[in-house]
Give the backbone structure.
Amino acid sequence: MRMSLAQRVLLTWLFTLLFLIMLVLKLDEKAPWNWFLIFIPVWIFDTILLVMLIVKMAGRCKSGFDPRNGSQNIKKKAWYLIAMLLKLAFCLALCAKLQRFTTMKLAYVFIPLWALLIGGMAELGYNIFYVRRD
């Protein structure tokens, strides 16, 4: 399952455009859709990314794979998996709040997003300031 850079960019652009069109229609009150329906393009895109990530992580389980190669790679893939799950939690909580399924405070809705942003900043700082010592 390899996609070229052009295919990944086109797929990202397509799902983002579809999501934004649906969001504008909802915000202009042209479409009385449920908020969960508005976020379907985001969830389809996330599902594609999760499947590709899990397939890559499962490739480590095949016979003949040397676990010493790419120990950093599996940590990065685990971070990507956690980030995707945090984004999914935020989207679900946001849709539940917008649809008025729950009465939780807006600050609680944003906790997964804040955790994702803090983790992203830590990952960025680690990648910038980490000095490899051989």
User: Anything to note?
Assistant: The helical segments are 5-27, 35-38, 40-58, 71-98, 106-109, 111-129.
